[in-house]
Amino acid sequence: MATAEASSNMKKVQVRRYKPEENADTNYLNAESGLRSWLLTKDHKRIGILYLIATTFFFFFGGLLALGIRMELWTPAATFIEADTYNQLFTLHGVIMIFLFLVPAVPAILGNFFLPMQIGAKDVAFPKLNLASWYIYMIGAIGTIFVIFAGGIDTGWTFYMPYSSTTGGAVTFMSFGVFILGFSSILTGINFITTIHKMRAPGITWGKLPLFCWSLYATSIIQILATPVLAITLALVGMERLLGIGIFDPALGGDPVLFQHFFWFYSHPAVYIMIVPGFGVVSEIVSTFSKKTIFGYWAIAMSSLAIAFISFLVWGHHMFVSGQASLANMVFSFLTFLVGIPTGIKMFNWLATMHKGSISLKTPMLYILGFFFLFTVGGLTGIALATIAIDIHLHDTYYVVAHFHFVMVGGMVMAYLGGLYYWWPKMSGRMYNETLGKISALLVFLGFNVTFLPQFVMGAQGMPRRYFNYIDQFQGFHQVSTIGAFILGIGFAMVFYNLVKSLFNGEKASANPWNSRALEWQVASPAPPHNFDHIPVLIHGPYDYHKPMADFQLGLAQTNGHEPEMGTHIEADKEVEMKD
Amino acid sequence: MSGHEHHISSDKLLLGVGGALLLLTIVTVGVHYLALPSPWSIIVAMIVAVFKGTLVALFFMNLYWDEKFNLMILISAFVFLALLVLLTLIDTLFREIPVPSF
Amino acid sequence: MANKTSTHAHPKHLYHHFIDSEQQFSAAKMGMWIFLGTEILMFGGLFAAYIIYRAWYPELFTMASHELNTIWGAVNTVVLIGSSLTVAMAIKSAQLNQKRNIAINLGITIALACVFMVIKYFEYTHKFHLGIYPGEFYTFDGIEHPKANIFFSLYYLMTGLHGIHVTIGIGLMSWLLWRSLKGDYDSEYYTPVEITGLYWHLVDIIWIFLFPLFYLID
Fold first, then answer.
1. Residue A528: which region, alpha, beta or left (left: phi > 0; alpha: psi -120 to 50)?
2. Does A406 map to a domain?
3. H-helix segments, A168-210
4. What is the pLDDT of residues A30-62, one digit of tens each?
5. What is the distance of C-alpha A428 from the center of its chain?
6. In degrees rounded to 5, what are phi and psi of residue A562?
7. ipTM of this model?
8. Inter-chain contact C52–A258, Cβ cutoff 8 Å?
9. Best to test chain A binding among B67, B87, B99 (most A CBs inside 10 Å)
10. Residue C136's domain is classified under what CATH number?
11. C-beta atoms of A232 and C42 within 8 A
12. Which residues of chain B have a Cβ shorter than 8 Å from any chain A Cβ?
């Protein structure tokens, strides 16, 4: 092990090369055992796995509801369930997919697991709070599921007033469940921002922060600024039902459109809570599988922050036909177009990263290529919907349904699955089956397009969303869409099978199967219990593929077998330079 | 890492700020009994409130000495609150049929 | 932190994933500040509703405010400011290692917070006697305005949410008092006192705005 000396303009430190241990005896999975060690863990990696198990369950539950919806729409009117049941199906599908899967998925699973590792920390800033956020999530989730038995809910996931204050069923219960879920999201956001500010290892300057961390940072900003408004809005819905406080209820002198303002002040930025972490995953994978430095690092990092900010200015585009003032319509429409700019910047930079790269089409990369295609379609149809005149025609049609599924499934879920495959070796210590992975990626892509492309067409022709019945001319579209949904479902099931199977008979993963330069790949697979046995020192950035591998894997040299002198701690935002 | 020692406020400063807050409370209640014409009473009251809030934030919550990022968090919270209020107002103040048309 | 050279001294309050106490302290403080940001936006939803309804019905707010007692509102303001002062004193005592004074100051703070809640209780019950209940239970007919119920809904929601925060603050402060009596806090470690103090000051700031918005507009 060569020892080199790194110096900053403050102090010199002894830097030593640490090669990751292959087939290490202890890792975070076997360091402790027993159910208790999992349920009381404060290890961010184990908490990430707890979230993975829970969200996977809810994802498949929500997916089954979606299949139920699609099956019901095979014929006009009743196919196999009643209209009321159908209303409850699409409401639950929306609530479960948004609040139980999309919002927590990337930040709470991949973010929890890899944020501390990417910045060279042993854990997030507040491990107890991190575990608490999982419990709060589970309480909220169980509450949400329990609604099914407490009378169901048929308001749609948007809980629009005044219907939600008058309809029967468990709206109060549901709003309380989502209220609780919001706190889980807030705690994760607090944890991530503090962690990124305070826990970076020596040499990890803001300019060397992996783009996944930048995207989580932007996401956390939205989480902490928007979620509290949702909390108070849902509390008001609850109070409206319990006490009739009348802020939103026109029967008592209130204004239902005000509810929509408050609701979308959260729920529009929430769309970016779901997608921005996905952007971070894309940046990591594109660079790794193109073997090239990311193109436009700062442009990608700053566009995440720009998206976070602009996301707060556009919520009124959900309300063009709500009776909102025309002035507000125009302002919101204009501001909405602005979102296209930072998003376009990202897309161009990713494509430029791939340009003349040495691209390897492994499964994670396939998902990202799918992401490029589907998210572009989703984004551009969003620009169409932001145009007031077009939106008046398309509002509440299947065009909107197709649009947001292209963004959410085609964008976020594709990025999430790509990220899950990409980091699976580090999380499980096993390699998945590449052939099966590729086949399932193609099935997901195919099934998705068969499901949602017809919905653009029938939406543009006037098929309204959330309707139980429809006229015969739409039946062909609906049937193609239903067939696509089943292909998509089979694709997701194969992903699940592939990953779970790898746990039992997958090939053992090496520490760095993708030859990545990022910090989380410079330790053993599966990750060691406390991430790093040394305090890592970064000299090059996480995407410096043109630098030799030997310049990575550096840590503060240990003195006399003890922890390094704290006095040698380098200011995290000072440059560290190699000096041989 | 920030190497600075934590700021320790003196009794004099804390009591001074407390006294100023008390004084401002008396002022704002006093102005209330003067019964200024309609918009002015609320304007004066809010200016005093902002001033009081700033005193608490800077000297009781130590933002004056603290790392600037914490001050930035507080300010951005108010900025985003202002966005919520202002963008909602461009709807509610400019509706063709002003108030809930139900 | 440059002067903290003792490498192997590992204070018992220091968690393993932090490098030193200073990092742990400033992280906890930043976390609390971010949480306070979320609190501002949570109250912010109600403040926004207040502003929007006030812009629609300015005359309602002036009329309805007559039903609120300015003097008791002012007394409560003074009480909360006093409690903010004593919390700041408690932190200062901790920094100066005056362990007894931490407990004394926290005790006064709790007492003042309780006084605030008692006054609030009398204000609420007085209104209930008049029939000024929240929401659809509102039966008071002393205000000639069809939307008078909205004003009092806002009043109960905002002061109620604030009251909940005061109550939580009393709970937190009692826990701090108990631990400070055990001697857990000194100049080396007083993070919980510091961040609970921040929370308490924010509760104070919110009341500083609620007071003129409800009591001083008639």
1. beta
2. yes
3. 171-198
4. 888 888 999 999 999 999 999 999 999 999 999
5. 20
6. -100, 180
7. 0.91
8. yes
9. B87
10. 1.20.120.80
11. yes
12. 1, 69, 76-77, 80, 83-84, 87-88, 90-97, 99-102
